Amino acid sequence: MKKKTTASPLVHTTRCKIRFSEVDAMNIAWHGNYVKYMEDGREDFGARYAGISYREIYKAGYKAPIVDLRIEYKKPVTMGETILVETRYIPTEAAKIHFDYTIYNEQGDIVVTAYTLQVFLDEKNRLVLQNPDFYTEWKKKWKIE
Questions:
Q1: How far separated are the first and last CA of the chain, in Å rounded?
Q2: CA–CA separation, 65 vs 92, rounded Å?
Q3: pTM metric for this prediction
Q4: Which is it for the CA torsion 47, 98, 102, 27, positive or negative?
Q5: What's the CA angle centered on 114, arms 84 and 75, to 5 degrees?
Q6: Which strands form 96-104's sheet, in the order they lie side by side?
Q7: For 7-47, how does the pLDDT look when each residue is reduced to its tens digit (9 = 90+)?
Q8: DSSP 8-class letter at 3
Q9: What CATH number was assigned to the domain covering residues 11-141?
């Protein structure tokens, strides 16, 4: 039986301004750019909660590619608008990093909901099935069960 994960208090919000180069001919943020906005959210999250940034993962001898990405588009945003990317860490016992995202417009409306799953690869690009030591220590540091 799969153990249910619990909500995490680790959340970080990143502001992104929609630029001209990010909109399509309809002046709507192109759907593929939301992957970049989530990347910005993960990078800021890693800076806020030290020990889980891409640089720190790589320094520990691992890579953490995304293996699952889901996005639900709720409402469009246009050039010049500012969005808030809320990045929430979701605890799991597996050797994975799970983030949920809620992206809001300036009025507080939900624009996008999404999630990503990342796995760990070693220096030879082999899948790591046990939590790496640095990740276990990071969870302890931030009191993740």
A1: 18
A2: 17
A3: 0.91
A4: positive
A5: 60
A6: 11-17, 82-90, 96-104, 110-119, 66-73
A7: 568 999 999 999 999 999 999 999 999 999 999 999 999 99
A8: P
A9: 3.10.129.10
